[in-house]
# Entry
Amino acid sequence: MSERSASVPALSVESTVGPVVAGTVAALLDAAAVVGCASILWNGGGSTVVDGSWVSQAGCLLLASSLLLIRLALSLSLAVERVVVAIDIAVLAALVSAWGLSSRYFVGWLATYGALVLLLASLWHLLAILVTRHRVDGADGTVAALRAGCVGVALVALVVVSPIHAWSPRILSGLVVLISGAVLFAFVLRIWIRALRRVG
# Structure
């Protein structure tokens, strides 16, 4: 989120605790979404993690969108965004490294899901910046550069953990739909809540 978008009324966590703590809180929400949703899909999966019961998929969607909605409510400046990106990338690198050292499939699955979340969230964030701004400069340009870097890191991570997902269109397409659905659902809810506040 940019410095301009941070002017929207929010929880303003940064003004209370500082960018490092606020960024850590946001990154913990990211990590909770990844671990929670990956575990739900893992335990509720069928022949693959994406063709399990609709209950597990709905639970994953609701958990991810709820945590993202809380994250979007935080007043995140450019300084906080830098902290979030640094922590998210560090955690993803740690997961990939842990999988490489242990060869545990579940750890590789967490890394795969985390990489896809980072990739898709960053792509949607980039699209939002490009659609809502005529020119990408200043804080928006810096955030766009950060998110473009996240896309590159996520793609590298997906290549490294390719033995887990095997580039299966069935698995990857299902995860893309599920993760993107959670992101879009959270944004729709945020717009609806803000509209209700204006009316009230």
